[in-house]
Design a protein that fits this description.
- The protein is of the alpha+beta class.
- Helix content is 25%, strand content 26%.
- The chain contains eleven helices and 21 strands.
- The strands form four sheets. The chain has a nine-stranded mixed sheet.
- It is globular.
- It comes from Roseibium hamelinense.
Length: 368
């Protein structure tokens, strides 16, 4: 543990200097409100547009995020690498545990964050990497709800009338493509693309999507006619000429502004969760796509696709930060998902089949 304290970093950055800044906005997600204060006006404007659908006029907030630009610290910080999840390679995060907080350094970009009980600060080349600031703001929402007993699922979700469908699967397994295909349904609303909070309740659990817009890959774009305008015709032709496996593994990402593509009032982050699909399908088979109801408590392989490690920013209710050798509690997920109909989707990858099944499900009567 470093002898550096949170106060040392606060003294170096002086967040009080932003107290009167006009570069600010407040967002509200569920019952949580966050003030976001920026040193840079263009970054503030960019993120104000991004979070536009959750901007609030609340006069008081539950917490504040301060975002600075480049800063020279008057002390040296010793970081250690944060171990990545199985299957992930390369250095991404490094941490330094302080006496009363944690610093997280993004190795690839140089953006640095302070996470503590009282301060949430970002500094470094923040304007060049707005998505990392967006993630930091959303992390505060995830942290809050997980500390009060919700579980964080690695899932997309779409709501329609009286039903909400969450979709999980292996990375690149098609959850975003499936969710966006179902957004073509009349009355469908976007809940989340990648992180869904679920809180136990009866008769159905509560669900809350974080305000992170779909960040989608080229394979999702070129297979959805509504999205093709996001890329040039030349780029689209190049992508369509690639082998499917190579296309779906590309590490390109694009932000999709839901209201601009699907129309206004098509986002509903807060809902009740009725159904869950776990995509366990394959491009290596010609077997028909199937939907089989499962007991998730008896399928740890499928549950592992739903569970998500809270990561280096998470501080538990007892004040102790999460470590990279801890394991997520499966029992908490099983309890939170009680009352949800969970189905395994197997066989071949067929987006028309999941669209047809999803349309039937989402338009079905409210569960009894």
């Amino acid at each position: 543990m470093s002898a550096i304290t949170v106060q040392d970093l606060v003294d170096a950055l002086n967040p009080a200097s932003l107290s009167e800044t006009p570069n600010r906005f407040t967002i509200r997600v569920g019952e949580l409100t966050l003030d976001c204060l920026f040193e840079n006006d263009s970054l503030c404007a960019e993120l104000r547009r991004y979070f536009g659908h959750v901007i609030s006029d609340c006069e008081s907030a539950d917490m504040t995020v301060h975002v600075f630009g480049e800063a020279v610290l008057p002390f040296h910080v010793d970081y250690k690498d944060w171990a990545r999840e199985p299957g992930k390679t390369g250095r991404k995060d490094a941490i330094a545990d302080l006496e009363d907080g944690r610093m997280v350094f993004k190795v690839r970009t140089g953006v640095t964050f302070l996470q503590s009980a009282t301060w949430r600060l970002a500094f470094g080349p923040t304007s060049a990497h707005p998505n990392q600031v967006i993630n930091f703001i959303n992390t505060q929402i995830l942290n809050h709800y997980q500390r009060v007993g919700w579980v964080g699922c690695h899932a997309a979700a779409v709501a329609c009338e009286t039903r909400t469908l969450a979709i999980a699967g292996l990375s690149g397994g098609g959850k975003s493509t499936t969710m966006l295909r179902l957004m073509d349904l009349d009355g469908a609303s976007y809940v989340t693309n990648d992180r869904l909070l679920v809180g136990a309740d009866a008769p159905l659990p509560k669900a809350l999507g974080i305000p992170k817009l779909p960040r989608i890959n080229p394979g999702t774009i070129v297979t959805n006619p509504r999205l093709k305008g996001m890329l040039s015709s030349e780029r689209t032709d190049t992508l369509l000429s690639m082998p499917q496996e190579e296309l779906w593994q590309l590490e390109e990402k694009y932000d999709l502004f839901v209201d601009e593509v699907y129309g206004p009032n098509r986002i509903a982050h807060q809902t009740a969760l009725t159904d869950f699909w776990v995509l366990n399908w394959s491009r290596e088979t010609d077997e028909p796509t199937q939907f089989i109801e499962v007991n998730i408590a008896e399928r740890p392989d499928l549950l592992s696709a739903i569970m998500k490690n809270p990561g280096p920013f998470y501080c538990k209710p007892d004040g102790i930060f999460w470590t990279d050798d801890e394991h997520v509690d499966a029992a908490g997920y099983i309890a939170a998902l009680k009352g949800v109909k969970i189905q395994e989707v197997s066989g071949k990858i067929d987006f028309e089949a999941v669209y047809a099944a999803g349309a039937r499900l989402l338009k079905a009567p409210e569960p009894v």
